[in-house]
Amino acid sequence: MFKTPLKRGRVLAMSLVPVLVLTACTSENEKTTKVSVDRIVGTWTSGDGETLSFAADRTFTSASLDSKKLADARCPGEKAAGSWAFFADLGDDMYGTSDTARSGKEIGLAFDGLPQEDCSVYLAVVDGGKTLCASNDPDLSCGLDVRFTRRK
Predict the structure, then answer these.
(1) For 32-51, how does the pLDDT look when each residue is reduced to its tens digit (9 = 90+)?
(2) Does residue 137 contact residue 145 with C-beta atoms inside 8 Å?
């Protein structure tokens, strides 16, 4: 069917364009993965230098969360600390952070000394648990397009 490798490459490249465009349009709402606490514990960084370090006792520290993509969320740029929890079904048709949930698909952050309306960002667990995506919209798992990956 194809007479030269060049033609094959062009056809292949052109056939991939719709797939790439479709992927780019849907990347903000990715499939979330339920993980346990031990999969979250550790230090996670993003491409713009934001850092989150999670401890098993449900505390965390952060740094540089005032990057361009997080600026509107009013997150602290300086080193900060707080507590974290998985979102879970709380009963009575309520869904929120649970101090006792041992696993989850989304993580809520509460900063020490910061009003709750500031830095109202949650983290969605995506890529099979390899990535934490920041969002401020419950309908978009990666709404702020900030992706944290675990440091090795």
Answers:
(1) 999 999 999 999 999 989 99
(2) no
User: How far is residue 33's CA from residue 99's CA, in Å, rounded to a whole number?
Assistant: 19
Q: Which residue has the tokens 């900060």?
A: 80
Instruction: List Cβ neighbours of 88 (8 Å cut-off, separation of 6 or more).
Output: 95, 96, 97, 98, 101, 104
* CA angle centred on 77, ends 71 and 78, rounded to 5°: 170
Per the DSSP assignment, residues forming a β-bridge with 150 are 44
C-alpha span between 70 and 120 (Å, rounded): 10
Q: Could you identify the residue written with the tokens 């997150």?
A: 75
What Å distances lie between residue 60 and 9, 42, 57, CA to CA? 48, 9, 9
Question: What is the distance between the alpha carbons of residues 70 and 68, in angstroms, rounded to a whole number?
Answer: 6
pLDDT by residue (tens digit) across 101-145?
A: 999 999 999 999 988 778 889 999 999 999 999 998 888 899 999
